[in-house]
TrEMBL record:
Family: Belongs to the universal stress protein A family.
Name of this chain's protein: Nucleotide-binding universal stress protein, UspA family
Source species: Actinacidiphila alni
The UspA domain, residue ranges: 1-139, 149-288
Amino acid sequence: MTRTVVAGVDGSRESVAAADWAAREALLRGLPLRLVHAWEWPPYDDGSASGTASADPQRHWAERIPREARSALLARYPGLTVTADQIAAAPAAALLSAVADAELLVLGSHGRSGVEHLLAGSVALAVVARATRPVVLVRAGTTAKDGPYGDVVLGLDLVRPSEAVLGFAFDAAARRGAVLHVVHGWNPPSAYGYAPAAVAPDLGAEMAGYESDALARALAPWREKFPELDIVPEAVIGSAAGHLVEAASDASLVVLGRRPRPIAPGPRIGSVSRAVLHRVTAPVAVVPHE
């Protein structure tokens, strides 16, 4: 079964930007694009053909969204295969079902207020936190380019570096012919109170050298797989979030990992991911991993 790139559409400016970004990503990957619009039929309407669309303005409007989005993308990208589906289900459930067998899912993001207002607020947060496939969040106003592309920025956790996250970032950079900027944030041991100034200069330099060497070792096998790729590794002291935001100022894509958090009540995203989603204007890919 051929995987697809899936984009959630709801008629908003954000979803239009997401669908356009998804179309270009589908072309980069040589995959078809599937547009999904979730619509919960009113209690009095079981979604059957018992009534006409014109008799129900809301239903008529809902049916137009994926159809018109598909037409616009086909006009813009005539070589792309695009399908459009309307799913009679709650939005989060519909999107999670659609992405289960997909290559990735693309959703629109309201940049002004961060992740809490992504594509109907808690819906996108629930999807990002529960999806088993990568989810890319795209802000309204994002202008997709044919190239040259800005850097792909990867936030890498060296405690348990994920093959899935590394693979996604390296593949994305290779497809774009872009520089891969890898950011690893680290802190001194807790005995120093997480204050860099409390560490003696010589010891601080030794710690920094150790973290840089660890980053180089984690990237070494991937350099062999992608010898043509220009890679910029950066091991920086302090939380990764601020450094990722700075690195992403001209990025074409930011890649983050999401590990399941079984102790927390319900699926969550980490503090670094939340901060990056709130502050970065570039598209952000959240890749789930064990």
